[in-house]
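Components:
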Amino acid sequence: MTGLRILLGAAILGGLGAAAPFTPLWLISLVTLAMSTGLVVCGLIILWRGGLVPFGQALFFATGAYTVALSGRWFGVTDAFLLIALAVTMAALVAFVVGFLLAQYREIFFAMLSLALSMILYGVLVKSETLGSTDGINVAQASFFGMKPRGPGYTFALFWLALGMVFSAWLGVSAYLGSVAGQLAGAIRDNEIRVEYLGISVTRLVHLKLTISAALAGAGGALAALSISHVDPQMAYWTTSGGFVFVTILAGAASVPAAFLGALLFEIVRTIAVALLPGGWQLILGSVLLLTILFVPEGLGSLMIRKRATAPEKGAA
Amino acid sequence: MITVIAIVTDGLVYAAWLFVVAIGLTLIFGVMKILNVAHGAFYAFGAYAAATAIGLYFDRGWPVVGGYLAIATAAIAIGLLMGYILERVFLRRVYGKDEVVVVLITYALFLILEDVLILIWGTDGRSAYQPYTEAGSFTVGGLPLSVYDIGLVGFAALLAIAASYTIKKTTFGRLLTAVIYDRETAAAFGVDVSRVYTVTFLVGAVLGALGGALTAPKISVTPGLGVEVIVLAFAVVAIGGMGSMEGALVGALIVGLFRAGAVHLIPQLELFSIYAVMALVLVFRPQGLFSRAQPRKI
Amino acid sequence: MQGMTASAWWVRKVSVAALLAAMPAVAGAQTAPAVPPVKLGLVTFLTGPAAGPFGIPGRNSAEIMIEMLNAGKVPAPYATAGLAGATIVPKFVDEAGSSANQVTEFRNLVQRDGMNAVVGYISSGNCLAVAPVAEELKALTVFWDCGTPRIFEERPLKYVFRATPHATMDNVAAARYVLKKFPDLASFSGINQNYAWGQDSWRDFVAAMKALAPKATVDKELLPKLFAGEFGAEISALLTTNSKVVHSSFWDGDLESFIVQSGARGLPARSTMVYTAGETAMFRLGAKIPDGTIIGARGPHGVMAPDTPLNRWFRQVYEDRFATAPTYPAYHMAQSILGLKAAWEKAAAAKGGQQPAIDDVVKAFEGIEFEGPSAKIRMAIGNGHQGIADIAYGSFRFNKAEGKPEIVDIVRYPAECVNPPANMTSTAWLEAGMPGAKCN
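Structure:
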C-alpha cells in the first residue's frame, strides 16, 4: 500500500467526518451501525481468503458488545476508547482460547463448530436473568477523554470514532493481507498440505487469522453496542452470523473498502426494504443475496477491482 | 421407575422427529455436498401444506384414516414441487462451486421462501389437530402416551430400514454410493451424475416436507417454524457425521435421549443440551460419529 | 429535522427519496392545511411468529381506531376528530428483526420521516432498546404491548409512556385467582418459555404465591426453549407430579401446541392449567381447551371486558371490519392510542385549543387518567408514565348449546390489588409480600 493511497483514504474518511454536521442524524446513525458491521466483515475477509467461513462470528461480536455493556455496568468504565480496547482484547482472548480447538477444523466443520460455540454463548446469555435474559441490558452513554457530548453531539462523536476505527482497521488489515502470513491465505485455501511442506504450521496460521478476525468482530460489537445503546442475546444468535456472511458475499473478499461499502449497502437495502414492503423485507434481502451470488459471484468489490486491474500497482488493497 | 419409562419414551419420540427432519438434510449433503439451509423451508411448507390438506379433508367429514394419507400426499406433492423448482432454477447453476457459496444460495432461498410462505398462508397460525387427537392414547406404567407419537417412532424406524435397504440393495442406491465416494470417477464410469443429483434433491425435499407434515397435527403451524428446525437438524447431522444415514439415526437418538433426560432430571440444562452434545462430539470426533476420513489430496 | 412541513405524499415516498437524495430540505411550496396532520409511527410485528396473535390484531386495531378518530366517530369522550382536530397519518413498521434494526428504524421514523409520535413495540427487549433512544431524540413514544416492569424501574424516563399495565399484574392476579379456587393448594408446577417473558412471569407468580400461600411448594419448574413446539418430555414430567395447578405464560403457537399435546395425554384431568395469556387462543381452539382452565387476558379485555358504550362500539366496529372478535392485543393498542389522544387534547385545552407542542403533550400525559374500552387507565406509577388498571381472570367453559367458548366465574381485581405502589419496584413489592395491596 503506497503512501498516496493512505493519504487518499484518510482524505475520504476525513471528508466524511467533516460532512457529518451537514448530514441528517438518522443517516449518521445508520452509517455508524453499518461500519460496525463492516469491521466484522473485515475480519471475515481474512478468514474467507483462507477458505474459512464461520457461521458463528456472532460469538465474538456479542462478546465485544457485552464487554462494553458490562464494563460500564459493573466497573463504571465510560471512556469509549477504553471500552473498545477492552472489547477487542476480550474477543481476541476468547478466540485465542477456542482457537486451540477451532483451528483444527476446515470447511463446513469449521462453520458448524463455530456455530455451535456461538449458540452456547447465546444459551448462557438467555439463561442469565440478571443480565435481562433475551430482553438484554442498556449500555450507558460513553465519554470521550472526559468529554460527555449529549444529543446530536453524541451521534457525531460516535461517527468520528467509527471513522477512526475504520481507518485503523483498513491500515491494519491491508498490512496483514500484504504480509507473508496474509499472502499464504490463498495457498491454504487451495491446498494446505503443500503449505505444510513449506515448513509452515497451517493450524497456527489459522489460529492467528481467527484471533485477528475475532478482535475485529469484538471492535464491531463494541461500536454496535455504543451506537444502539443496548445489547441482547440476539447478537450471539446464528442469524446474526448469517447476516455477516451475507454482507461478505455482497462485498466480496477482494478489498477492505468493499467490506464497508457492502455493509452500508446492506443496511440501506434493508431499511428501504422495510419501508417499501413492511411484511416482506426478507424477500427483498434474500433476492439481493441470490442475484449477487448468481451474477456477481466475486462480490460487488470485484467490480471495483476489475476496473483498475490494468493499473500497475498490485498491492493488497 | 415411571421417570425411566418417561425418559425413554420421550427420548424416542423426540429422536424419531429429529431423524425424519435430519435424514433429508444428510442425504442431500452426502450426495451433493450441499448444506441445504432451505431444508427449513421444506419443513415449513410441508407443515402448512399438510395443515391445509387436513383441514380440507376433515371439513368434508370423511373417515379419519384417510387423513393420514392426506398428510403424506400433501408432503410429497409440495416436496416434489419445491425440490424441482429449486434444483432446476437455482442449484443447477452453481454445481461445482465452493460449498460455502452453495450454502449461501440456499440461505437466500430460505429467506425468500419464509416470506413467500406468509404471502400464501398469511400470518395467522393454522391448526389441524384431528389426526393427532383422533389417534387416542394408552397408558404404560401409569404414564399416558399418545398413539400418534408412538406411531411416529414406528414410522421413523421404517424409514431407517427403507433407507438402508435402498442404499445397499437397489441399483439406484449403488449409483448413489458411487457418487458419494467420488463424483468424478462415477461420472467417468458412465453414471448420470446430473440425474442422480436431481433425484437426490427431490427425495431430500420430500423428506423435509414430510418432517413438517408429520409434525403439523401436533403443533400450531405458525410463521418462523423453519428457523427453529434448521439448526436442530444441522446439529443432529453434525453429531452423526455429515452425509451419513446411520449417523443421522444415532445422532437423533443421542440428542433425543439426552434432552429427555435433561428435562426430567436437570431442567436447567435443557436449553444447552443439543449444542453441548454437538460441541462434545465434535471435540472428540471432528468429522462426527459416522464419517469416513477424507483422503489427503496433495 | 425538516419533516415538519411535509405532506401525505412525503410520508409515502420519504423512505426511498430520502435515501437517494441524502436529504436536502424538501417540500417547501405546498399550501399548508389549517391544522397540520399528526404523523404517527406504529411499530408492530407484521411477520414472524408474534405477528398472528399480537402484531396483526394490534395493527388492525390501530387502523380502525385512527380511521374512526379521524372521522370523529368514536363515542364520547373521544368524539372530537383526530388529535385535537389534527388528522392522524399513520406509518406502519415491522417489528421483526434485531433490536439494532428496531433502533435504526426508530431513528428513521423520528429523524427521517418526522413522526410526531410513535406507538409501538410488543417485545420487551425492543422496548428496553428503544427507550434510551426515544429520550435522546426527545420523541414522544407510547409502548403498547410489551410487559417487562423494568422500563420505568431502571431509570426515570420523560418522553416514554406505557398505558398498558406491566406483566407483574398478570401473575399476581393469577395467584390470587388460583388460591380462590384452590384455597388449600399444597404444591404447584410451572411451564414457561425460556426467555425473558417466561422467566419473569414464572418468577413473579412464584413470589406472589409465596406471599399469599407460604405453605404451597413448587413441584416442577420447566423452562422449554422458545418455539420448541414439541413438549412431550415436559408433559411427561408434569404427569409424574401431583401438582393440582400448573402455571404457564405460553402464548400462541407454543400455547396451542401445548394445549393439544397435553390434552391428548390427559394432563388436564390431573392438573388445572393457568394460562396467563390464554385469551388470544380461546376462539381458535374452542372445545380443545378443557373446561375449568384458568384464563387471563393481560387486563380485563376481550370477553371479560365490561359492557360499556365504548367497549360495545369497539367490539362492533372491529368485528364488522375483520370478522373476528378483538383479543387483548387489540385492546392494548386501542387504549394506547386513546391515551395519546387524551393527553394530546388535555394539552391542547391548556393552550386554548391550539395544537400543543410535544413537550406540552408529555406534561399532560404524566399521571393522566382516561377511559379505555375495557377499563379506566391511570398513569399512576413510574413517575406518572406507567399505567395501572384492573385485571380479570376467569375459568374457561365451552358452551355446547351455542357452540362457542366462554369465560365464567370472572373475578375482577382492582388495580391497587395487583400493582405495586408508585414508590416500589415490582420485585421489591413482591418480595416484601405485596404490602399496601387494596383488594376490594
